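DM from R.C. (forwarded with permission)

"hey, sorry to bug you on a friday — could you get me a structure for this? deadline for the figure draft is monday and I only need the backbone to look sensible"
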Amino acid sequence: MGHFVFKLPDVGEGTAEAEIVAWHVKIGDKVAEDQHLVDVMTDKATVEMTSPVAGKVVSLHGSPGEKATVGAPLAEFEVEGAGNAKAGAAHASAPKPAPKMEAPKPVQSPQSAARTAPPKGGHENKSYPPPLGEVRREAPRRGPAVPAVTTSKFGDMPMASPAVRNRAHELGVELQFVPGSGPAGRVTHEDLDSYVASGGRAAAAATARGFAKREGQEEIKIIGLRRKIAERMQEAKRHIPHFAYVEEVDMTELESLRQHLNANRRPEQPKLTVLPFLMRTLCHVLPDYPQINARFDDEQGVVTRFSGVHIGIATQTPNGLIVPVIRNAEAMDLWTAASEVARLAQLTRDGKAARDDLIGSTITITSLGALGGVASTPIINYPEVAIIGPNAIVERPAVYDGHIAIRRMMNLSSCFDHRVVDGYDAAEFIQRVKALLEHPATLFMD
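My reply, with the result:
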């Protein structure tokens, strides 16, 4: 029998490490060649690693949430034949943990040793003074018999220490109902505990009203996609000086057109949402603002402007927020764009989106749909320089042609990278988007 060490291969261009997401085998399992072994993740793409050999798993390296570098051992197998390593080679190559350091023992001075040492004869002198800075605690003296339990009358101020009063307040207990066993009927902590344990009326009433305290806490380790999202959000906020711009858009005409198109669509055509209209609007306006359809490499100091419009669509999944990319949206009509959005959203939610489906966006749309709220300040999808966030469409009074009318209004929130996009250009860009959305017929004109 031989041993085979499976090392993490290069899982993407320029990738130096990957995070272990989940193991699908355990030590002692017999695996076949090409059997699913482990999931690793890099740059939002989860890669399934399969076993290169058939054999028995003898060791696994790394737990979910830990990162492994390219070339580091992931698993060791016992295989037929020579294998590719000696037994325990993976362990031998792994860095050894640093030796444990014992805490230094306190050094006593001759004076303190003399003070703490018992007198000769082997009997401890308990009345001997303690060392400097040390307080000797004596056992409580036994006093006379505990006085009889007394109960305060309603309206009387019960006798209790401040600590007991605070506990009673937290528990919702009225102290005048608690029998006191301390001197002169003082209520002690033990009295309070006994009263609550026996189903005291105040405590029981508080629990019945739903005012009982809730205890407990839960710690959740941030790993996998959630950690990657956190890292990217932190990177975006650390690198990009965001500035936000919010404009109100009258969506009445566009909503009327959208409902008409949905009512007359063919069976094979998807239902239109606002997203395809917003995508088409961006494709109309962005050629005049190439600095917004761009990515900024701040380390190299280079802005790359794109002719094609590759729109990222922020998609909520059970594993977190992921941004699939609609490539060359400028070449799509409304129906094609809607179909592509639905296709990629489903693949993303099912965890089946390919790596190429998740990279290369030049501008991102993030929408909460009906939960869109009044306004938002979305975080730019680094290294892009702009993000657009449509908010909820609501009916409200608005001035229209000099009269008050009920219109379908939407706030359009956006954020820009102020290093690359000037405030005037961003405002002008959004005003152009607003004009097209409010007059949707112009979306179909050259």
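R.C.: lifesaver. The two ends are 72 Å apart (CA to CA).
me: no worries. The chain is about 25% helix and 25% strand.
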